[in-house]
Amino acid sequence: MNQKTKAISFSCAVLMAAFMWNAQSHATEVGDKAAPLMLAEVSGPNTFNLNLKKPKSRNLPPAEDGIHDPENEATHSLQHPLEAYKGLPTSEFGNYVDWVKALDQGKLRPRWDRADPNEEPFVMDLDIVRPVKASVPDVVFPHRQHTEWLFCSNCHPAIFKPQRLANQISMSAILLGQKCGVCHGKVSFPVETKTCRKCHSKPKPADWQPPLSEATLKNPWK
Amino acid sequence: MSSKIKRNVLKSMIIGVLAYMGAVGVPQPAQAEYADVVINNYADAAGMRPAVFPHWFHRIRFRCKVCHADLGFAFKAGGNKITMAKIIDGKFCGACHNGEISWSVENCAMCHSGNPGTPTHFHGSTVQRLIAPAYKPLQANDTKK
Known about the structure:
The complex is a heterodimer of chains A (222) and B (145).
Chain A: H1 2-31, H2 81-84, H3 99-104, E1 127-130, E2 138-142, H4 143-149, H5 152-155, H6 171-175, H7 196-199, E3 200-202, H8 214-217
Chain B: H1 2-24, E1 36-39, E2 51-54, H2 55-61, H3 64-70, H4 84-88, H5 108-111, E3 121-122, H6 126-130
Antiparallel strand pairs in B: 1-2, 1-3
């Protein structure tokens, strides 16, 4: 027992020494120019990256994904996603598969009709440019990629009125699951920092200036 | 003496590794595929496991239009009020899961494969992450069979 405590204290001492040495070397680096950097004690609720928890592994088999019951025998006969995704172009979000690219490259041939494998989709190639008030690039909505998968009646007229300037869209509406958010953020590519530029893809005109806020315009001391 | 210390260091290292493994082994939040839907409108009350719908699996075989335009599935998890009666009448899932286009409804556990007690939800949904309370899977000993 005594030996064990000795060993633990020895290893603790080694660790402490390593830390001290590390701190010392950093202090000498900084100390030449300014006073040693004072760091706040960070603990408990003030740790870094509290909300940046990343999934430890991707595309788990059904039995390990947390929503399927591993005690159910049939769970183990369900397909492993990675088996289905073999050979498909990858992406950095969602299922980690670029579904649109997979369809364009002919790696997938999903049916357009329930029973007839030869029916072709009704594709409309029309880009809609939506100017954005904020300084982010303008939005280009491509009908082509959408009509490859969907039918007109899926979006028009219930979600989007098929008329220019008739639809008010905001990121808050999308994040709350309205407008584009009916699909994006749920099934089609998610709404994350990595995906901003998929929609916000058209750079602002060269002479574009961000509009001044009302508070600035009304400022009597300007 | 030194060999004893060595052995003790080894022992404490093993304890440390075990503690780390214990921490890793605690239940993790669900890491299902993006867009997997758990549907538990009636299943739990009827003594069945909730149904799990994998969008990824169906998207490889059918375009969105087939279910969401032709078959009339609303864009809402749990919003279609699907029952087995509707399915055997050829509506909703039953339009394909009829033994002709895909396997038939006697394979109950293929769909009804969710963890008992899981609420209806859309896995990976932005709305759910932003405004709904975080979904926590039940502990193993809480699940009702």
